[in-house]
Hints:
Blueprint lengths: L4 E2 L4 H10 L3 E7 H11 L4 E4 L6 H12 L6 E4 L3 H13 L5 E4 L1 H6 L1 H9 L5 E6 L12 H4 L7 E4 L3 H18 L3 E6 L7 E7 L1 H7 L24 H15 L2 H16 L6 E4 L7 E5 L3 H8 L6 E6 L1 E3 L3 H8 L7 E6 L9 H10 L6 E6 L9 H13 L4 E3 L4
Parallel strand pairs: 3-4, 5-6, 6-8, 7-8, 11-12, 11-14, 14-15, 15-16
Antiparallel strand pairs: 1-2, 2-9, 7-13, 10-12
Helix pairs in contact: 2-3, 2-8, 4-6, 8-11
Amino acid sequence: MNNITTKNNSANTQTENEKFYARHTQKILKGNYAAAEAAKLCRAGFIPAYPITPQTTIVEELSNKVATGELDAIYINMDSEHSVFAAAMGAAIAGERVFTATSGQGLFYAHEVLHAIAHFRLPIVICNVGRPSIPWNIWSDQTDSISQRDTGWVQFYGESSQEVLDSVIQAYIISEELDLPVMVVLDAFYQSHTSENVWVPEQSLVDEFLPPKKMKGGEIDVDHPKAFGGLIAPDKYETFNYRYWTDIQKVEELTNKVGEDFGKHFGRKYQAVEAYNITPQTKIVLVTISSITSTARGLLPRYPEVGLLKLRLVKPFPKETVLNALAPLSDDTAIVTIERNFPGDKEGALMMEMKRALYGERNLKIYDVFTGLGGKDVPPVTIERVILKTMEEPKDVTWIDLE
């Protein structure tokens, strides 16, 4: 199905689901439409847009919602992704709730403005549909968002269309409480163009959880003019960064709190990370993000000695939550990071972040695996090869299923 279709269930299933997801409607949505639906439910008021595969249907769907009156927002077609984020910055300075979407080269092109948005402390939420750059490719990869880790944006990675929708709603709470921009990332095609069952909450349910955006006094006020982006002396520059440093450290705890509150309100609980089968008997822990997680989870019943650590919050890296999740492990457990990114280094980004988190805390051996880059499929047999390779002939860094 190209767009949205209500799903028919048996009476028993419908009754059982409604018990947990009251005031929801179950629909079949592609990940991009789930993202657009979330922006509408969050009452985004300004949407600057520029199409780029594979995120185009997000902004197309939002354009349709604005044109039909389903969403009360200003929608503007811009001439580039750099312009998109510049317009988003201006609207956020004016106090508007902003949403947009991009992918790959679009995100790279906006790199300069990403820094400005973060250090202007602007609460903007976007979706990035992860894809690579060169060699020319439009399929799934996380190198585009991973390469923006140092711009100052909070980054969440969704595993399903449901999680994308729910994460956008939670992202606005976090973004507007801390005045930090948030990027919700979904895999190209595996999520963006694949239809899934999604529970869509009623507008009133979201309104109860996410109140209207509050003005904090720093916005543009024509009656009280002020300058934005002026030259800053070194001592003041350092102070600005110290304040940013102070607040970025609150993201992990706030993510867990907002995820807990979301569960009480909507019936679906979230945390910065999710741990599966992590016990003193676990011999291998696979570390994953996004859609590869679902494939890996499906294999766990066949490998009782293998656990799974799903990273939902990646930037800032949730060190304390990760350490708590891994606490039951014995010191001979192997950690295996599965990378759908290539940052131009010996190791992938997940291994770098895991090493940093564990340094001085746990003496666990970490192995890195590159697979699925550029959208190459990662079926269950590939995950099995990762497990068997780790059991029989582990290497610090391995490329699986090269052709």
